[in-house]
Design goal:
Structural class: alpha/beta
Helix content: 40-55%
Distance between the termini: 52 Å
Strand content: 5-15%
Number of strands: 10
CATH topology of the largest domain: Rossmann fold
Largest sheet: 6 strands, mixed
CATH class of the largest domain: Alpha Beta
Shape: elongated
CATH architecture of the largest domain: 3-Layer(aba) Sandwich
Number of domains: 2
Amino acid sequence: MTTALNSIPQTLQELPPKWAHFCLHVEQFIKDDLGVDLAGKTVVTAISGGVDSTALLLVLHSLSQKNAGRVTAVHLNHQLRPEASADAQYVQNVCDQLDLECVLGTVDVQEAATAKGVGLEEAGRDARYALLNKVFLDQNADFIAVGHHLDDLCEDVLMRLTRGTAWPGLAGMPGYDPSRQLIRPFLLTPKAKLKEFLTDIKLSWCEDATNSDSTMTRNRVRNSILPLFLEENPNFPESIARLWKVGKIDRDYWDKSTSSVTNPIPNDVLKTSHQASRLRQYKAVLDSLGSGQALADTLFKLDKAWLEKRNGSTFQFPGEKTAIISPTGVVFSVKD
């Protein structure tokens, strides 16, 4: 889509009051729910040219004017669509109007997917985050911001459900990932609100035709599965937002409760722990040993073996990790 870019509001004062309040509401979510203060900070912001990322750039830019911060836009051309170059030019034009630095990258995602033996979704995601992380490091930035919204969260929860993700991971993607300094300011904001925002300030956006490609898992969830849930419960997104809030609280509780877990985990500790705590202690140690998701079925088998005092029993986990029941506790290791 094309648009005239000569009147993009740049500050809260230039926005209609409704949308100035919207920006302040997003800021409050970032502070209260994500625990992040953007005042004086540099934020690297992903922008595809779509409605969500374009709205995110405008909101963060307006807030940066208020809080003496700085925003850098990052756009990656995946070379998958004929209009990809036009999208990149659109992003550059928006950034020029806002007087923002814009880093444009190009990657042949189809070629990358073939070389790595992965799908287009994974290859594209890897390429995007590689560029974002590079700019983040180059600029000594404080945060990376991406435009995931409430509709995306609904899709993410359904995808996790189909994979059998346990609680509290089932509540969906985090709003703040401190390991990557990544924030999702719109995570509890419906996509419809973002469309209304850009429409009201008379700024159109780019539409990605690949969003209708049913070969991609997320698109099948978005276009086929999520509508069925909405048909049964029109308030499904609000329910997911509540689920996310509860999951965030529970995740924080367990993260703090397992922060001092040692390896090996001694029997004295395990004997005084509820099963829920034991399972999370196992997972916390396994996670600390590196990549590789600990599978719930194997964790249950490990706990049963510990209860039955089956000393010498060995359990394998992804990432070449091992857990062994010993006379004094559970010992974890990873192959060098």
